[in-house]
């Protein structure tokens, strides 16, 4: 399960934003079920940022949001993200040079409907 939180940050606030994002990422990384995370910035527009995290399941992500350190360091930052859907389940994937592998949905029998 992936979570993408996108942000628009004025360039004069980028240093403060990255410091806060690093603290948020560290707090999330300490939680059970966390797989990996990255802070990304758009190449075409340096005011656009994304905090991408991968989780074992939607349950581990939701439980992580309730942890004290996450409430202090992550939730305030995440609340500043663009208001749009942010949690995505993986439905298919492919390794380099590999075949596409379809993954069962946790939500529906037919995930593409």
Structure, described:
The chain is α+β, with helices and mostly antiparallel strands. Helices cover 30% and strands 26% of the residues. It is built from four helices and six strands; from the N terminus they run E-H-E-E-H-H-H-E-E-E. A four-stranded antiparallel β-sheet has the order 2-3-1-4. The protein has a two-stranded antiparallel sheet with strand order 5-6. The mean pLDDT is 93.
Could you give a quick summary of the protein structure above?
This protein has 113 residues and is of the alpha+beta class. It has helices at residues 14-29, 58-65, 68-73, 75-78, and strands at 2-8, 34-41, 48-55, 87-88, 92-93, 101-102.
Overview features:
113 residues; alpha+beta; four-stranded antiparallel β-sheet
- What gyration radius follows from the Cα positions, in whole Å? 15 Å
Helix count, DSSP H or I runs of 4 or more residues: 4
Rough shape? Answer: globular
The biggest beta sheet reads: 4 strands, antiparallel
Strand proportion: 25-35%
Structural class per helix/strand content? alpha+beta
| Strand/helix succession | EHEEHHHEEE
Helix proportion range: 25-40%
Order of strands in the sheet with most strands: 2-3-1-4
SSE layout and pairing:
Blueprint: E1 2-8, H1 14-29, E2 34-41, E3 48-55, H2 58-65, H3 68-73, H4 75-78, E4 87-88, E5 92-93, E6 101-102
Antiparallel strand pairs: 1-3, 1-4, 2-3, 5-6
């Amino acid at each position: 399960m992936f979570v993408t939180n996108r942000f628009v940050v004025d360039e004069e606030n980028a240093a403060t934003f990255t410091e806060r994002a690093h603290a948020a990422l560290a707090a999330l990384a300490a939680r059970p079920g966390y797989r990996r995370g990255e802070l990304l910035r758009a190449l075409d527009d340096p005011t656009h940022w994304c905090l991408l995290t991968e989780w074992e399941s939607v349950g581990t992500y939701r439980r992580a949001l309730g942890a004290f350190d996450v409430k202090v360091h992550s939730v305030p930052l995440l609340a500043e993200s663009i208001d749009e859907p942010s949690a995505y389940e993986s439905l298919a994937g492919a390794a380099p040079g590999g075949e596409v592998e379809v993954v069962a949905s946790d939500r529906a029998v037919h995930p593409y409907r």
